């Protein structure tokens, strides 16, 4: 198993981010110097790519291989958790 799918998803996420579109930075520059400006999805994909690469070197996973589907599920759960936990910006009226 390779981490190519996660790498592609991260690249697409970076290309859609304001760091690239609005500010004109390269995706590489966004990851290195503007990580705090990236959407949460890109941050989670970056972590998933790191975990995937690390898993390729993990001798315990050598025979079983990485489970790329697991990373996608983890990212989706984290995104749902973040959208639920974020407080509403609208002040209560009444």
Write the layout of secondary structure elements.
Elements: H1 4-16, H2 18-21, H3 27-33, H4 40-57, H5 68-85
Q: Report the principal-axis shape.
A: globular
Structural class computed from helices and strand pairing: mainly alpha
The helix content, as a percent range, equals 55-70%
Give the termini distance in whole angstroms: 56 Å
Helix-strand pattern: HHHHH
Q: Count helical runs.
A: 5
**How many β-strand stretches?**
0
Radius of gyration using CA atoms only: 16 Å
How would you characterize the overall build of this protein?
It is a single chain. The chain is mainly alpha-helical. The chain is 64% helix and 0% strand. The chain has 5 helices and no strands. It has helices at residues 4-16, 18-21, 27-33, 40-57, 68-85. Helix 1 runs antiparallel to helix 4 (40-57) and helix 4 (40-57) packs antiparallel against helix 5 (68-85). The chain is globular, with a radius of gyration of 16 Å.
Quick structural summary:
The protein is mainly α and 94 residues long. 64% of the residues lie in helices and 0% in strands.
List keywords for this structure.
single chain; 94 residues; mainly alpha; 5 helices; 0% strand
């Amino acid at each position: 198993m390779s981490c190519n799918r996660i790498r592609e998803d991260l690249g697409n996420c970076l290309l859609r981010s304001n760091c690239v579109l609005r500010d004109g930075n390269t995706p590489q520059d966004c990851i290195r110097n503007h990580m705090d400006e990236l959407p949460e999805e890109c941050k989670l994909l970056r972590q998933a790519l790191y975990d995937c690469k690390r898993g390729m070197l993990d001798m315990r996973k050598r025979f079983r291989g990485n489970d790329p589907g697991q990373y996608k599920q983890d990212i989706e759960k984290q995104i749902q958790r973040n959208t639920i936990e974020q407080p509403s910006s609208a002040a209560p009226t009444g």
